[in-house]
Design brief:
The protein has about 675 residues and is of the alpha+beta class. Helix content is about 40%, strand content about 20%. The chain folds into four domains: about 220 residues, Histidine kinase-like ATPase, C-terminal domain (Heat Shock Protein 90), CATH 3.30.565.10; about 150 residues, Ribosomal Protein S5, domain 2; about 90 residues, 3-Layer(aba) Sandwich (Rossmann fold); about 150 residues, Up-down Bundle (Four Helix Bundle (Hemerythrin (Met), subunit A)). A hairpin with an 8-residue loop joins strand 4 and strand 5. GO terms for molecular function: ATP binding; ATP hydrolysis activity; ATP-dependent protein folding chaperone; unfolded protein binding.
Length: about 675
């Protein structure tokens, strides 16, 4: 029996492996089975070149547990090892500057294991002792047994083993007994090994017999050795892709499309990506792409490996050029990973364009499901935007679809304003904004439907991309001002009537939480809506974008600002103006005359103190100025109260305001109940 020390430059390699890999203890199984796969494939290579002339026979890798002994055993029938090879591959862990290296990487143990081929040593994360019983495939090889208890000391001795290959026996420590459990091992095998290229058996299959589950004499093979992405697309049908998707995501709806990747230059990359059906804007799930390295599962956290927007896709990527165990920062800076990321983006865009050109009708039918994904890509990836702009669609409120170029041609004649800017009108809710949409259509305008999760950002983005173009929500102004033209209506109300009606309508606008209303007048057609509510485009869009980003922006804290727009030419409005003149005319004239006289005196006093220093103004003039200003305020308040009292008793004013609120879905609760009762009274 030989004893010795493992050749490391420091003795703290094992404590570091144990201590700093605590969150990833389960990867020991992946590492050991990956080594067994490598040993098996190496033997197959030797056989193919004539270096091994024996029978390959059964090459199944077997995993077994012994709950009484607390052991896990991984057995392969691969190349095996001689005592010299154990010395070379297992005992010599020498690398330069080990102390510096360990200090640098001790918090990133994946980097230790990945960079320095220490996969086998991950077994010490869960074991108090590890044994290797191995026999090389070479003729007359002597079986050997290697044993180590997690210190740097080991023993090697002759052993009995009839067949070639390697058994690794892990004596699980007390902290990790949860791994000596059939269900736990099954779960880990499914997670890490379900697509490995060599058959892996864990126990025997079972079947129900006489009301109970019994084992049968057939290996329970847990993996698919020839998964779909390793096969040629020409040999596969749509049903094969659908079945594979259901195997990966049993609870998901069928996907929209798939892309089969098969690249061998300038790097190796295979895989199948699926466009999932995203049921709602809120249900955006990432971490659905599984990353493999030579069919060995690595991670489902692929940020940094694929562009941000592609993390919405589902499926599998496999590349030997992506290191198996490395840190996130390493992945994100690796040049191969960046090339792969760029290539996947191109392939996705090419596939979408291909589908669009091959069957536009099908593409349009699936657009509502694809839209969120494509807009996300166009917002976050400049190259994808350039490619996607050929097939990205705009949908109008009538359910018709247009490419960017097609839509521009359709609307440019009628929707260009007096400043030669092309105006794209849009709605975010076809039902809530119905009145405004109909008013726009009556003018011959077309209205887009932009009701998606990213649309407030997307509108902002494409507005900057399109030349001399702006997007205007259909309820952001009166219809005549959405696309300003040269022709204008003349206002029927006088300046004094507008001033009076401003007080009348302002006094009856409801006090809504976090909302502010500003009354304004527009000269519209007599048949246009008498009173409407609009919301200024810029502020509303900034608030929507702020809400999507979590509401932390400046605009997110501001109240909603609305315009209560009164049509100064509508018969009902001119009727109210005439009624105010009739009922309050004399009183208002008296107040107006007093205010005019007071303002005249105020102007005289201001002229008198011009060019004088504060101390040069006589005290009597100062006091008179204060008195004049006070009287002006009192007269204005008196006028405001008169108009407010009038408005309170005029059901038509409240009715017009409530109709405007109702058309904007802003009339609720008690206010809605009052409106219904008042409507009955007026009828």
């Amino acid at each position: 029996m030989q004893k010795g020390n493992i050749g490391v430059s420091t003795e703290n390699i094992f404590p570091i492996i144990k201590k700093y890999l605590y969150s990833d203890h389960e990867i020991f199984l992946r590492e050991l089975i990956s080594n067994a796969v490598d040993a098996t494939q190496k033997l197959k290579t030797f056989a193919s070149v004539g270096e091994f002339k024996g029978e390959l026979g059964d090459t199944t890798i077997r995993v077994s547990i012994d709950e009484k002994k607390n052991t896990i055993t991984i057995s392969d029938r691969g190349v095996g090892m001689t005592a010299e090879e154990i010395e070379k591959y297992i005992n010599q862990l020498a690398f330069s500057g080990a102390n510096d290296f360990l200090e640098k990487y001790k918090k990133d143990a994946n980097a230790i294991i990945g960079h320095f081929g220490l996969g086998f040593y991950s077994s010490f994360m869960v074991s108090k002792k590890v044994e290797i019983i191995t026999r090389s495939f070479r003729d007359d090889a002597q079986p050997v047994k290697w044993s180590c208890d997690g210190s740097t000391e080991f023993t090697i001795e002759d052993a009995k083993k009839e067949e070639r290959g390697t058994d690794i026996i892990l004596y699980i420590d007390d902290e990790n007994k949860n791994f000596v459990d059939k269900n736990e091992i099954s779960k880990l095998l499914k997670k890490y090994c379900r697509f490995l290229p060599v058959e892996i058996a864990f126990g025997k299959k079972t079947e129900w017999k006489d009301g109970k589950e019994v084992e049968i004499d057939e290996d329970n093979v847990i993996n698919e050795t020839n998964p779909l992405w390793t096969r040629k697309p020409a040999d596969l049908k749509d049903e094969d892709y659908q079945k594979f998707y259901r195997d990966l995501y049993p609870m998901s709806d069928d996907p929209l499309f798939n892309i089969h990747l098969n690249v061998d230059y300038p790097f190796n990359l295979t895989g199948v990506l699926y466009f999932p059906k995203i049921k709602s804007n809120i249900e955006i799930q990432k971490n659905k792409i599984q990353l493999y390295c030579n069919q060995v599962y690595v991670t489902d956290s692929v940020e940094g490996i694929v562009p941000e927007f592609l993390t919405l896709l589902h499926g599998v990527l496999d590349s030997p050029d992506i290191p198996l165990n490395v840190s996130r920062s390493y992945l994100q800076s690796d040049s191969n990973v960046k090339k792969i990321s760029s290539h996947i983006t191109k392939k996705v865009a090419d596939r979408l364009e291909e589908i669009f050109k091959a069957d536009r009708k099908i593409f349009e039918e699936k657009w509502d499901d694809l839209k969120l994904f494509i807009e996300y890509g166009m917002l976050t990836d400049e190259k994808f935007y350039d490619r996607a702009s050929k097939f990205a669609l705009l949908k109008n409120t009538e359910g018709k679809y247009f490419t960017f170029e097609e839509y521009k041609e359709i609307v440019k004649t009628n929707q260009t304003d007096k400043d030669a800017q092309l105006v794209y009108l849009y709605s975010t809710n076809k039902d809530d904004q119905y009145t405004f949409i109909e008013a726009a259509k009556a003018k011959g305008y077309d209205v887009l439907l932009m009701d998606g999760h990213f649309d407030s950002h997307f509108v902002n983005h494409v507005e900057q991309k399109f030349e001399k173009t702006r997007f205007v929500r259909v309820d952001s102004d009166v219809v005549d001002k959405l696309i300003p033209k040269d022709e204008q209506h003349e206002m029927k109300l006088s300046a004094e009537q507008k001033e009076n009606l401003t007080s009348v309508f302002s006094s009856q606008v409801p006090q809504l939480a976090k909302s502010h209303f500003l009354v304004s007048f527009e000269a519209m057609g007599e048949t246009d809506t008498p009173v409407m509510i609009t919301q200024q485009e810029f502020m509303r869009r900034m608030k929507e974008m702020s809400a999507l980003q979590g509401g932390g922006m400046f605009y997110g804290e501001m109240p909603d600002s609305y315009n209560l727009v009164v049509n100064g030419n509508h018969p009902l409005v001119t009727k109210i103006a005439g009624d105010v003149d009739e009922q309050l005319g004399e009183k208002l004239k008296t107040i107006t005359s007093r205010v005019a006289s007071l303002n005249s005196r105020k102007s005289e006093l201001e002229a008198a103190k011009k060019d004088k220093k504060e101390e040069e103004i006589p005290q009597a003039e100062k006091e008179e100025m204060e008195d004049v200003e006070k009287k002006i305020s009192e007269q204005n308040n008196k006028k405001g109260e008169l108009l407010k009292d009038y408005a309170s008793g005029n059901k038509l004013v409240s009715q017009l305001i409530d109709l405007a609120l109702l058309s904007n879905n802003m009339l609720k609760g008690e206010a809605l109940n009052k409106f219904v009762k008042r409507s009955i009274e007026l009828i």
